[in-house]
Amino acid sequence: MSISNARRLATCLVLAASLTQASFAADILIADAKSQPESLTVAPGGVLIVGSASSPFVYKVRSGSSTAEKFIDASAEGPGTFFFGMLADASSNTLWTCQLTPVPNTTPVQRHTALRSFDLSTGAPKVRWNLPGDNTTCNDFAIGPDKALYISDTATGRIYRLPAGASTAELFFEHRVLMGIDGITFLNGTLYVNNVVFNKLYRIPVDAAGKPEQPVDIWMDQPVKGPDGMRAANGKLIVAENGGGRISALTVDGDKATVTVLKDGLKTPTGVEPAGDTLWIAERGAGKAVSIPLPK
Fold it and tell me: Does 75 fall in a domain?
């Protein structure tokens, strides 16, 4: 091969690599800069579904589009209603959401929250379960190996479990170190949660009877600030650091975890969602959903 042909080939390879990287890049404004997207999920067909922490709306962005459309309207639920966790379950054609409504005339503000589900295609309401207590924060959820939905309640330090096909959840676990629980996910069949208040990561062991045991504190090799939304992908935990403005991958080895920063410089990232070879991020402080390549 001549030198000129080699140079042309090298140029083409660089261009192809840059185009591949560009294909991952997305920067989608959700309604406006004040929409505060707290959590997001991806439905079949690449439809992005994003909740708003500043309005009673859930939005969807069709594959290939950069325009967010209103998908769910909960404005009839009461003043100040908004959404946290979002999770698409394609197997049951269900969108799981956390809906929060402030209690009037309370100082500091208290909230009544509900786990709600909607038809993933039409947005029609399905299940509604109100979290017990005068002040609750339904925050996020994960589907376990048993097909049940596990729900985090930040305000009470509780995890609830909703069996597959059920409409009422049961208390799965309550512990003092979970006051401030936020992200929740399963990695290789094991339950992990983080604590957004105390910057902690825990493994929740389960005995042979399926009962949770004492949380195990996972030591991380560098600080993780404000761990928020968390998902598992490619053998790692992917976490949004709302206090650090970054997205990190945690490689867990026993009771230790190695932290690798995937992206920094974000404005209050609060949610992550792996989808194929792409990682979607809810950038709450910018009112955007952005994406980066998902690490192998």
Answer: yes
Q: What is the pLDDT along the chain (296 residues), one digit of tens a residue?
A: 554 454 554 444 433 333 333 345 689 999 999 999 999 999 999 999 999 999 999 999 999 999 999 999 999 999 999 999 999 999 999 999 999 999 988 988 899 999 999 999 999 999 999 999 999 999 999 999 999 999 999 999 999 999 999 999 999 999 999 999 999 999 999 999 999 999 999 999 999 999 999 999 999 999 999 999 999 999 999 999 999 999 999 999 999 999 999 999 999 999 999 999 999 999 999 999 999 999 98
In this structure, what CATH number is given to the domain that contains residue 85? 2.120.10.30
b vs e for 63-92, b when ≥16 Cβ sit within 10 Å of the residue's Cβ?
A: eeeeebeebbebeebeeebbbbbbbbbeeb
Is 80 inside any structural domain? yes
Residue 8, in any domain of the structure = no
In a domain, 179, yes or no: yes
Provide the domain limits for residue 44.
25-194+269-293
Contacts for 183 with CB less than 8 Å, ≥ 6 apart: 140, 152, 193, 194, 196, 227, 228, 229, 230, 231, 239, 240
Query: Which letter does DSSP use for residue 32 in this model?
Result: S
Residue linked to tokens 């990287």: 21
Q: Name the residue among 134, 209, 211, 228 with its Cα closest to residue 173.
A: 211
